[in-house]
Amino acid sequence: MVRDDLRCIYEIAAKDMRTYYLKPPAISWGIVFPVAWTLAFYLRSPGDFEELVPGLIAMTILFSTTAAEAVVINFEMRLGSLERLLLAPVSIGGVLLGKVLGGFLFGLLMTAAVTAGTVLAIGLRPDLTILIPVAVLSLLVFSSMGALFSVGFKEVFEAQTFLNLPRFLMVFLCGVVYPISAMPAPLQSISQLLPLTYTVEGLRGAFSAAPSSPLLDSIVLAGFFVLFIFPAMRLLRKRFE
Amino acid sequence: MKAIEVQGLTKRFGSLTAVEDVSFDVEVGEVLGLLGPNGSGKTTTIRMLVGLSRPSEGDARILGFDLSSGIAEAKRRIGVVPDSSNLYDELSARDNLLFMAKLYGVPKGVRDERTEELLRAFGLYDRRNDRFGTFSRGMKRSLTIAAALVHDPKLLFLDEPTVGLDVVAARSLRDLISDLHHRGLTIILTTHYLEEADRLCDRIVILVKGRVVAVDTPGGLKRSAEEGSVIEASFRGAASDHSADLSARLPGSKVVVLDGMRLKILGGDPTRVLEELVGFSRSHDLGLEAVNSMKPTLEDAFVRITGLSPAVMAKEKGGR
Q1: Which of B52, B87, B105 lies closest to A81 in CB terms?
Q2: Which run of H or E residues covers position B230?
Q3: H-type helices in chain B, by residue range?
Q4: DSSP H or E segment with residue B34
Q5: Minimal C-alpha gap between B180 and chain A (Å)
Q6: If exposure means fewest CB atoms within 10 Å of the residue's CB, which of A218, A240, B45, B126 is most exposed?
Q7: Interface test with A, best of B43, B69, B86 (most A CBs within 10 A)
Q8: Could you tell me which residues are beta bridge partners of residue B24?
Q9: Which of the four pLDDT bands, split at 50, 70 and 90, describes residue B319?
Q10: What are the pLDDT digits (tens) for B50-66?
Q11: A80 vs B82: CB contact, 8 Å cut-off?
Q12: What is the pLDDT of residues B108-125, one digit of tens each?
């Protein structure tokens, strides 16, 4: 059963990469949006671009993983093709993890491209022992968050619309462009409840010599992954009952 | 060993009981038809048997594996054709089959050969590189069946295989199902087309409101309808407008409207039926043209057993 699940998880992710992710809409949301956003801030203050790099990578992680993830499950459910996957010897959890892996791999590609591009262009030397685990855990967190929204709504547009709320909230409240310490106290408290805060914090630690707590950030991110993936599995199981 | 043993299968959705205490067996190599109108529980029963939905009560053994504990093993050996053609529009015919083969763990060496063999068998080889989304309904249905056979299953579930197809495509698909049967595949077929069930099935389970009301061969079901007469009457006028009056005149019979000017009367004493038909025609000035005594069809048996009109079944799914 585990072997069947592992095989199906890989095949579902590979198929999703071909059919959904490596297509212009997903690529534009995944890479063009964060780059355009960062460029706007760079043009306003070119000297501080180094400061923006962790935020740029965090936004790429957020938008690339959730770009198509938030709709693929919902879309396939409406077409009935998700049900077809469940006819194969695979568990519901296996199907969901296959979908999450698709978003994760696409996010990994986009994030690797953006990170390598900026690091080489500016000549930065990030601490890879912090960057890689924080980035990988963040990719898992936001991919599973997209899956949760995709399973939670019946209509594709609903999932996409409702996901925009936490996405943009996180862009403003999680230290992507404005330091959390400069925000009013109530907003600082809210930012502690949002996963992107720990992504940005971890990435800042990887790009600067400033003191950071990557282990704590990683543990919190792992917690968010569990918090998203299990309710998503439960909801998906319920949809088929 | 039986291919399927179903015992007391029940499915409830809140206060609604969709399937209640359903029991039947399927022999290896048999084509069993699940027949019933929409909402009779056919698809819900199939969904439970293929592991898409958990039964509220009861159990089943599929190819020797318990539904409750061995569904993963059973899934490796069964093919399922859902009531909609739900392969991937963006993938080609060949890629759809290859993807399904990979999901079922068909070895790499066998995968290509099996895919090509199925594409040829289903007459889709020339369109193998075309996207599924560009196919006609009949071709989509054929490829959906091919996808269910890619891992060489021992048992095939076909849920309403010919719904929405034109006459030619439906006929060719029925030939294909017959062919699969002759090759020894066990098939469970759900349909609301009575003639389809009559032609393809070795035995038929009739479901009404989630309960099994009859299990027999098509011949056996027809014989059960022979106990009463089957009389068809043609009129010059619109007899269907007054069918309620004829029903009232023949309390022991079932009056079925075939079309505006033709009625079928199932059951009752033939002499009395004839007398009432003449009286009915005169009182409404319908002009009785012809009266024929018929051999009962599966449709007649279905009407007698369920009390439902076959027209209701056809209307529900836009049947032919």
Answers
A1: B87
A2: strand B230-235
A3: 42-49, 71-77, 93-103, 108-121, 137-149, 167-182, 194-200, 218-225, 243-249, 270-283, 298-306, 310-316
A4: strand B31-35
A5: 20
A6: B126
A7: B86
A8: B6
A9: very low
A10: 998 899 999 999 999 99
A11: yes
A12: 889 999 999 999 988 899
